[in-house]
Task: inverse folding
């Protein structure tokens, strides 16, 4: 396979990886904002719900803890998943994808337990919303992990990240020029022989200083100008 064809294939794969990262990036931002706002709105709905229950004289279980629990869940899960998602898409961090999968799986288990306890009977739609959010989070984390595997492979290929023959030739010429540049060679040579200290200057006596002034024995100083 020629360089042109291999570069073209690898460049196409790199563009696909970057496209996936962009999709995951925007999904993480939008879904995190949605769930956080949704949890906050559920918390605000305590007051009107209590008013309706009092108006109908249905005072049983007036303050259900599910409202607070939904907001606390969003307050914990959203920032952590957002951080892992950004690291996954920006830094191609594999561990972030794995931790995100673990986080969302734990959240799904927690919501199934809450449902069995009758915890979400007052807000049944919340179970569906958070389950969809967590399931989608696992899905996109797996996609990101697979994309990372392909991206790391591309990083090891010749020509990364441009996969352009002209750019590769330019980089090779630049490296060769830097390697054989006489100024750089001289600089490196001076670095090896340079000392980080100076020897002390010799201390001259008055007679020696006078002898430096010339044959007349007078020292040339500023007063003789």
Result:
């Amino acid at each position: 396979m020629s360089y042109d064809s291999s570069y073209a294939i690898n460049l196409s794969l790199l563009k696909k990886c970057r496209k996936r990262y962009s999709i995951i990036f925007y999904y993480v931002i939008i879904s995190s904002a949605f769930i956080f706002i949704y949890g906050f709105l559920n918390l605000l709905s305590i007051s009107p719900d209590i008013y309706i229950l009092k108006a109908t004289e249905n005072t049983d279980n007036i303050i259900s803890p599910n409202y607070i629990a939904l907001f606390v869940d969003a307050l914990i899960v959203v920032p952590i998943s957002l951080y892992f998602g950004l690291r996954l898409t920006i830094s191609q961090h594999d561990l972030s994808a794995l931790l995100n999968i673990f986080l969302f799986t734990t959240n799904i288990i927690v919501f199934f337990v809450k449902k069995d306890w009758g915890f979400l009977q007052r807000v049944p739609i919340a179970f569906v919303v958070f389950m969809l959010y967590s399931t989608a989070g696992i899905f996109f984390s797996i996609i990101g992990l697979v994309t990372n595997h392909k991206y790391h492979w591309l990083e090891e290929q010749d020509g990364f990240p441009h996969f352009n023959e002209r750019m590769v030739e330019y980089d090779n010429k630049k490296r060769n020029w830097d390697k054989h540049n006489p100024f750089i060679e001289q600089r490196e040579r001076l670095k090896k022989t340079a000392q980080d200290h100076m020897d002390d200057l010799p201390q001259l006596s008055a007679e020696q200083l006078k002898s430096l002034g010339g044959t007349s024995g007078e020292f040339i100083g500023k007063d003789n100008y």
Summary: The mean pLDDT is 78. The two ends are 81 Å apart (CA to CA). The first helix runs from residue 3 to 44.
